[in-house]
Amino acid sequence: MSEKLLEIKDLTVAVEGKQILNGVDLVVERGEVHAIMGPNGSGKSTLANALMGHPRYQVTAGSVRFKGEDILGLPPDVRAQRGMFLAFQYPTSIPGVTMVNFLRQAQKAVRGEDVPVREFREKLLATMKMLRMDEQFARRYVNEGFSGGEKKRAEILQMGILDPDLAVMDETDSGLDIDALRTVAEGVNALTSPKLGIVLITHYQRLLNYIKPQFVHILYQGRIIQSGGPDLALQLEEQGYDPVIEKYGPALVAATGEKA
Known about the structure:
Largest sheet: 6 strands, mixed
Radius of gyration: 18 Å
Number of strands: 12
Mean pLDDT: 91
Shape: globular
Distance between the termini: 38 Å
Strand order of the largest sheet: 6-9-10-3-11-12
């Protein structure tokens, strides 16, 4: 049996002493796109940050294996070197640092060695061409004065340069109008490959009109309460989360002892 790209078992996570995740189980293979959906406060961003090793998120139980390796003891930079990538919900601006310098240093950090200028430039230009981005974009300061759509496109460009095995995308559609959403989604689709696994965290089905997941999971009160195919997202768009919560809420109360 080949190793799983990402295998999460019974993951429990607390933030400042408050338990947020209550036993998450998830398996992601290469080439798969998994959408994680759920109402506000269900633990979606907690899952993303815990996977990348944010120090504020304390794993209290469970395991996370990436390419067969237990990664919970690894710091975020080492997880990135192993091939994990996180696209932030709210990317940070870095005044005075150009995109091209930031990307080169990020690539060097992930590879663990310097990258020849010519090799980096060829990779950058090829990736920007694939994403249909103007070369002037690389000369701008990181996220300084960027629109919401430009910030998310910058994240996709980073993803293309770093070439991860797993991309965790935390509410990539947050704050985007329909045109920006389409543009960003086209960038993600351009980078999909049989090598890459994607965990796509979102509130709304509209993103899934452009990025097609094979699997959809509903996260509620820190636990995945239902999984299915793309039709599950369409069902949520039509009916909302209430029918799912009403169906699975009692079992969640029995398992966690918390009010649904």
